[in-house]
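User: Mind token order:
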Amino acid sequence: MQNRTAIIDADVIVYRAGFAGQDSIHSVVANGQVMDQFSRKAEANDFAELLALGADCKLSPIVETEIVPKAHSEVENILDVMIDNIVEQSGATDYICYLSGKTNFRTEAAKYQEYKANRKDSVKPVHYDFIREYIQEKHPVVISDNCEADDLCAMRLWAGFRKYRDTGDKLDCDQILCSIDKDLLNVSGWHYNISSREILWQEPEAADRHFALQLLTGDRVDNIAGLTFYSNSKKRVGPATANKLLGDAVTKEEMYDAVCKAYEEFAGDDWHDKLNNSGLLLWMQREPEQAFDIDDWKGGLYD
């Protein structure tokens, strides 16, 4: 069996194991009395609505949610099984976990929208800190410094891909990146989707096109601007429109020209700076402290 290392995006695992390690009880309460309880909030909302209608609107039921954490031992088992399954299903022979540290250059680098501002109020699992500590104690792990776990994952996959590039044999790419984060698809090599359990070989042309599409659409999850934001919504660009704007572009130079044309038309006089800043935030580093520049990307400096 060919040796292959599973590069595990452990930021994803922390949340998946964390939410699996807690139960939610959604109670429908009216006039101070619990009318019924549900494990799914959608069902509780539906019941509350029906209850209000059935009572000729005399009741004003509300849904109250209680989080019930599972025992630490159970959470540990959930996480260990999750990691074991990833290693097995990705065809890896060993693994390493990557966690994001406290600092990230993107926070200061973002010029037009605050990076990940839309995540400030996101709810973390009850066992979030416990799981991070457990991973560091019981599993091989690297914690990022002034970048993201995604960057470190990308660097390691890129090193494996370069081995393939030297020989032309995909089996010589001895790394497989395990995540659900679409951003990482701008890196060539083996990918394993933790959710769909699908293994994908990402060719350089597909990785470049994926990145070019992101430059046009931006990234709502990370609050990275695309043409919709830069044009004040005069030009709305989602995945379908982005594909049309790229057209039949195949080479990196063709994609670059198509993206620049769209930015120049819709993003204002400082379109190039806007494009470069979005690229800086979207780019997954190939080397430590890599300073991204869109023109260097076009010129193949990062290949």
User: Anything to note?
Assistant: The chain has two domains: 5-16+73-202, 205-298. The domain at 5-16+73-202 is CATH 3.40.50.1010 (Rossmann fold). Strands lie at 5-9, 22-30, 33-38, 62-69, 94-99, 141-143, 175-179, 189-193, 199-202.
